[in-house]
Amino acid sequence: MPFSKVKKNNIISYFSKFYCKFQQALNKSRIFDNFLFECLKEIWYLITLGFSMALLSFSIDFTMAQFLKGRSLSYEKLAGYVTGQYGVWIGYVILLLIVPAILSHYLSPYSIGSGIPEIKTILQGSKMDEIFTISTLISKSVGLILVAGSGIPVGREGPFIHIACILAMKLYSLFYKKNFQEQDKKNEYLISACAVGVACCFSSPIGGVLYSIEVTSTYFPVRNYWRGFFCAISGALFYKLLDILFYGKEILTIYFKSKFLYNILLGPQELAIFVSIGVICGLSGSVFIFVYKYYILFIKSDRSISRFLMENWWLYTLLVAFIISSASFPGGLGKYYISEMTQSELIKHMFYNMSFSQGPVSHYSYSNHESGVLKMAEDNNNDYFRLLTLIVYQFISIILIITLPIPNGLFIPVFIIGAAIGKMCGNLVNLVFVDIQNQYPNPQMLNGIYAMIGAASMSGSVTRTISTSVIVFELTGQMTHLLPTMISVLVANAVAHCLIPSIYDVIIMTKKLPFLPDLMTHSKRIRDKSVSEIMRRACDMQCVELCFTHSDLKNLLEKVNFEEIPIVDDKNKFTFLGTVKRSVLENLLGMSPKEWCPNSQNLLFKPNEDRLVITGNRATNLDRKISRIVERIDFEELIKKNKMISSIQILPNVTLIKVHELFSVLKIDNLYVTSLGKLLGMISYKDMIDQMI
What we know:
Layout lengths: L2 H75 L4 H25 L9 H8 L10 H16 L7 H19 L7 H20 L2 H12 L8 H23 L20 H34 L1 H9 L1 H15 L15 H8 L22 H4 L6 H19 L9 H22 L1 H6 L7 H17 L4 H9 L5 H18 L3 H9 L12 H4 L8 E2 L6 E2 L4 H10 L4 E5 L7 E6 H8 L3 H4 L5 E4 L2 E8 L2 E8 L2 E4 L3 H6 L3 E2 L3 E2 L5 H11 L3 E6 L2 E7 H8 L1
Parallel strand pairs: 2-3, 10-11
Antiparallel strand pairs: 1-12, 3-4, 4-9, 5-8, 6-7, 11-12
């Protein structure tokens, strides 16, 4: 071979290899560019979500504060006229509660309640897209402003979480138009939205992330962790910047500044006291959930009462508003627990290291008139009576409020109940233990510590979360008493867990939402059941066969309402081929035969049918030979075009523990029971719920 020819071949091979490597590098750079673009797009989405929620929550808080000031000013202008003050106080509450009830009834019924039970149900696999509408957002936001602005005991964390989730879904539809139908991707951002909702409510990004995980997620994927923190910190930062812009506050302003002692030594007595507070708060939280549960069940069990309340929802709202506002009137029962103070001001006073009567309450109150805050210290009633009155009022009021058809939450009222319980325990400690009194120059300075521990324990026992301790640390700006607070919260959770489910699980049960309960609370006999004992048998199921015609498919879709339909070869062998979405089959029916059956076979049916045709008074027997052409759908072609969806198959001897875990982790609708490729049956998400109820 000539030398020039060899050299020419080497040059060509060299350039061909160089071109291949260049093409591979170019493909890798495109992959890297796409990956970088998706990451930047996701970060921008989370920042936009945090900013949008911060702006909306700041607007809600600002407007709510104006309503609260309006209530206080209107009350002060009628000083000396008790009847006029009572009328203004009652009318203000009734007006601001009836308007949200009207909005919820006519604009969006899904804005009723806190929204956390519905979000928790969605994150476990159910589909409830109707709670993410714009009408729900408007009704929830306006309703929350009016309800919280009326001054009644109501929380904001639940509605804030719901509002954040609606914003997340609307932004998701703008950022990810092509992937809007992917439920798994949307669920990942819903958890981030829950975190930013709590962060904007309490300015607590760390506690917000942990609280959102504990409350809404049964199984939490770790890959979502950074999204929750990033979104929560963005929301809290933007909220602080808005505070600086409008109020000139410092960027590190703490909601409830406290001056707790940091040199307390934890002895055996103090540890026993903290455990006791946890036990008391756990029992109190269980009683709260128990009373709410059976109050709702009593209303729903009596058909006459249930029908009356459904038809006269406005009358029930008026009645509850009248009862709560009358009980909080400052000239009556309200003077014993400073009903003129907002909930935030009341928590500040609880965390102050003084007794309930001796605290500098005038600094936190909007009004200083004679019958209000300043006169409280002159009354002869002691702290125990005041705190007990506050606990009873908050306890009864919040149970009535969360049954109203309005946006509402319960975290802050329960938080206040726990703070009052802790304050009472602090007073008892100062009264009983003399050595503690001798240890500190002012024994009353321990009341704020006990109030903080009680607040975290009570709210943790009701919501069944541990992150309330972290929220408390971020609210007060102190982590000095981390250990005693965590001990008390853990004890309260353990006590409540042994007695009754969390308040959100009870609401899910009373609303009959499609939620999969915890299997470990059931008996071992149910947990050890095999799936073959409760599954739907294949012979009783409606399946698509390969030999189906156009009319067969139409009849099947009229009988079946499942979103996912299995395909088998025929009903004699039941060889499982996969599943197909109902929407795909419906699209097939709307196509022409050439589109859905390019290689179809024409089947000619010539049955003999004897029909009786009546014409006037005469009857004639006609023996017709009817011929009709039916196009057989080529499902094999459908399978080749990847129109089938993946399905999870399990063996018939799998226990319900494994089935429960698959439904909880994978968020799927159906599990198919097969053996050696043969379809034996199916168990759906709803079947599993029915089995456990």
